[in-house]
Design brief:
Elements (H helix, E strand, L loop, with lengths): L2 H15 L2 H8 L5 H20 L8 H25 L2 H9 L1 H13 L5 H18 L8 H23 L6 H23 L8 H28 L2 H7 L2 H12 L7 H20 L4 H6 L5 H4 L1
Length: 299
């Protein structure tokens, strides 16, 4: 499979994640962020474990729980804290900084060179997200800003370490391990920090099913597959597709206005994502020299 096909397939994951805001606000009870995160992660992880019938070896348990913490437990918790304490546009813009963080984390943990074009593309993407989402009423809350930055750093660390630590199993099994670990971390936090959920309506159950089966199990399997095949800086830029999808769904489904500035922001984000794929692509000579280079990478 070619690199372009890998990129397009991986981009489906953050595009689907853009529906999370719509589903959360329209189909789930408000005020249960950690509980919802646990219900999104743990059932999906257990289902994938049942399907793959592949448990992590004992030597991998520490790494699996660390990755599950970074990619799910810590990231989703801080994401909700930022969303509750900041305007949505500010929270999403802080989250978009993870693409920049990945570039420098990959330099330290993977030895990936820092390319000026990649940094410029990440900066342009953050600017586009800001134009797309930040309105004149935007305000900064110190705790919310810290949560937003922490969530971006958590996702960045999870992305880079998921590339660094590749177990000899399928992406589906690797996703099952991480979702289950993240859900096991979140479950006691939800029981301690939040009251019990009210009786769930059919719409609530449908929302949880979407977030768990599609927004977690299916899309994260696609995402981790992409993390294993595409350069960390390139795959992190694809995460900026999420706010674009969220705004488009708000416009199409909820009838929210889409201003010329937001349209400009969406165009900048899409251009930055495209530029980020080109800027982060290693030279063909480097790929050919690597013993583990795959056909997909050298295509």
């Amino acid at each position: 499979m070619s690199r372009t096909t890998d990129i397009l397939l991986t981009a489906l994951a953050p595009a689907v994640w853009g529906s999370t805001y719509l589903v959360t606000t329209e189909a789930l009870p408000a005020g249960y962020p950690v509980t919802v995160a646990a219900l999104r992660a743990l059932p999906a992880g257990l289902l994938l474990l049942a399907l793959t019938r592949c448990l992590p070896p004992r030597a991998w348990l520490g790494r699996v729980f660390l990755l599950g913490g970074f990619n799910f437990a810590l990231f989703w918790t801080l994401l909700f804290v930022a969303a509750y304490r900041l305007p949505g546009g500010v929270a999403a813009t802080l989250g978009a900084l993870q693409a920049m963080m990945v570039i420098f984390m990959a330099r330290g943990w993977l030895g990936t060179p820092v390319r000026a074009g990649a940094v410029a593309a990440a900066a342009a993407g953050v600017t586009g997200v800001a134009l797309l989402l930040i309105g004149p009423e935007a305000a900064l809350d110190p705790v919310g800003v810290a949560a937003g930055l922490g969530g971006a750093a958590s996702m960045a660390a999870g992305t880079v370490l998921s590339r660094k630590w590749q177990p000899p199993v399928s992406a589906l099994s690797f996703t099952a391990w991480q979702l289950t670990a993240g859900g096991l971390i979140l479950l006691p936090l939800a029981l301690l920090a939040e009251p019990p959920l009210p009786p769930l309506s059919p719409i609530n159950l449908a929302g949880l099913a979407w977030l768990g089966l599609i927004g977690a199990a299916a899309t994260y399997a696609i995402w981790f597959r992409g993390v294993a095949r595409i350069e960390p800086g390139a795959v992190s830029m694809l995460g900026m597709m999420s706010p674009v999808t969220a705004v488009l769904l708000g416009w199409v489904v909820l009838g929210q206005a889409l201003s010329p500035v937001q349209m400009l922001g969406a165009i900048i984000v899409l251009g930055a994502v495209w530029a980020g794929q080109r800027a982060n692509r290693p030279p063909a000579s480097d790929l050919a020299a690597r013993p583990g280079a795959t056909r997909a990478e050298t295509a």
